[in-house]
Amino acid sequence: MSSTQAESTPGHDWVRAHQFQIGAYNDVPADMEEYKSFGFTAYLGGIRLSHMSEERVERVMTPAVEAGLDVHWFTWYRPGEKEQFIEAEQFLRERVAPIGYSIGDENRIEQLEELGPVLEHARQAAPDALIYHALRGKDFPEFADDPEVYVNYMDTVAEQLRPDMMMFNMYPFYRGTIADFFYDNLERVRDQALASNVPYWNWLQAFAWTEGPFHSPSESEIRLQAFVSLAYGYSGLFYWKYIASYEPYAHGMLDYEEKPTPSAEYIRDIVPELKHIGEVVKDLTSTSVHFVPGRRYRDGEWHNVLPIGVTAFKRGQHPFVLDVQSSNRRGAVLGTFRDDDGNAYFMIVNGNHGADLSAAETAAAVSLRFRPRVDGVERLNRQTGEYEAVPLDNHTLSHYVLPGGTGDLFRIVQKP
């Protein structure tokens, strides 16, 4: 799928004016120094409308403000709660002044008409804040049989809520594998956001359930969801959730004793890399996303493997990449971008991953052959945030090895 240059809108202006937003949801008292040790720039504090009080604000929100984090408010909304929302919003704004409001969580389509005026009230009351809603993902049963039902749902969200930014919930790692529609959901939300001319963010999975389908994501899975999101142009990332505070969660980033879990350590390692790439991506316009098929040997033949809903890369049809090859059966993702001056960028992500598999165990190579007018490429070092020239051999970047689930962002250098 492709797009054109994004025009200025409140959501785009907000994203560009703020640092890259990466953080986690939390609804209980937490040590903010430990929270900041993960490298997070933002904090999404959850307070239900019925729980809004001085004590709850002091315990859940104020410490994040005092720690210098960019603070967002997450609240649920049920039909008939508009007056309660108005009171709670004013109460919180006078004490904390969140820079973002996430209003409502996965509300059903028939509730959106009532929810729209609530978001509009928030826009008027806090004109400098980012106003948005946590959309449903494709994992809800009503979307299972007919893809157009989900498209209609997103159209309704865009029309009736008019969010400054689109952010969706779909946690893909369960029963030891990845959801079939992981890429499809990323594609559809991206398409809707681009059509609505708003930025788009993603919720990332940091949890497991005590009973039920969701498993604790591995290092390669943690990396995959985050880096693929950036390749699709998602310009903000939040983890659900920081502390496991109620059932059915077996753990969040921290367990019930507030000790870091393996998920937390994987996230601690990845956040500096995501911040360096995210700071650039948030100011770019996503122009296309293509899936580079993996190959699987079956019945004596090699077969290309494509996930549901993706646009396959085809040789010779890309403006500056002639061909891409992936060495693993799970393939790769190629996202392309342009900046305001028309300069071209691309991000390549190794799609190899697996439950209980590390990034090192799922490392794989990609090779890219460029058109003759490409004079060189510069990689954004995801450790330092600095650009560095990468040598090409006959317009080809050969056998470029990436850890499992990991991607790099490049800037194209074209001949004058």
Describe this structure in words.
With 416 residues, this protein is of the alpha/beta class. The chain folds into 2 domains: 10-281, TIM Barrel, CATH 3.20.20; 285-414, no CATH class. It is 28% helix and 30% strand. The chain has 10 helices and 23 strands. It has helices spanning 10-17, 32-37, 54-60, 62-66, 82-93, 112-125, 147-161, 182-196, 219-231, 262-281, and strands at 21-26, 42-46, 70-75, 100-105, 130-135, 165-168, 173-174, 177-178, 200-205, 208-209, 236-240, 249-251, 285-292, 294-298, 301-305, 321-326, 332-338, 344-350, 364-370, 374-380, 387-390, 396-402, 407-414. The strands form 6 sheets. The chain has an 8-stranded parallel barrel, surrounded by 6 helices. The protein has a 6-stranded antiparallel beta sheet with strand order 13-17-18-23-20-21, covered by helices on one side. β14 and β15 form a beta hairpin. α6 (112-125) packs parallel to α7 (147-161) and α7 (147-161) packs parallel to α8 (182-196). The longest helix has 20 residues, at 262-281. The chain starts with 9 loop residues before the first helix and ends with a strand. The mean pLDDT is 94. InterPro entries: GH.
Low-confidence stretches: none
Query: CATH first level of the largest domain: which class?
Result: Alpha Beta
N-end to C-end Cα span? 28 Å
Strand coverage percent: 25-35%
User: Gyration radius, to the nearest Å?
Assistant: 21 Å
CATH superfamily of the largest domain: Glycosidases
In the CATH hierarchy, the architecture of the largest domain is Alpha-Beta Barrel
Q: What would the CATH topology of the largest domain be?
A: TIM Barrel
Mean pLDDT: 94
How is the biggest beta sheet arranged? 8 strands, parallel, barrel
Structural class: alpha/beta
What global shape is seen? Answer: globular
Strand order, main sheet: write it out.
1-2-3-4-5-6-9-11
Total individual domains: 2
Report the count of strand segments: 23
Helix content: 25-40%
DSSP helical segment count: 10
